[in-house]
Amino acid sequence: MSKPIPQIKKYMTQTPISIEKDAPLLDAAALMQKNHIRHLPVLYGGKIEGILSSTDVNLIRSLNGVDLAKLKVYDCFTPNPYKVTPETLLDEVLDEMAEKKYGCVLVNDNEHLVGIFTWIDALKATKNLLETRLRK
Fold first, then answer.
1. Is residue 105 within 8 Å of residue 96, measured between CB atoms?
2. Which residues, 6 or more positions from 93, have their beta carbon under 8 angstroms from its beta carbon?
3. Which residues neighbour 70 within 8 Å (Cβ) at sequence distance 6 or greater?
4. pLDDT tens for each residue of 4-24
5. CB atoms within 10 A of CB 16
């Protein structure tokens, strides 16, 4: 007898750290470094606007003549990120992440951020499922 596929809410990081899109980029970079995170949800008025990754910040840093102190988050974040609801099944999220090579998924309830699911969370979910479903 097989068990049902769990919903993403079981494995997501709840209430993730986020930033407003008009915040200084240096503030976002410092927030990511301080909290050891690679993905920072970007909000505007409390609603999801996009995602800023450490890769985005590092790319901007590598450009000659660009002064990070003059930039805002909206200058380099990725708009319209992949979003799911807390009830979305884990296998659906994993398929989409693998196919599109997404590093994270934002979990929303009526456009309000309630969680984030990263590839690290995917590894933890895999480990948990292996231990609970295959080990006797």
1. yes
2. 8, 84, 105, 117
3. none
4. 899 999 999 999 999 999 999
5. 20
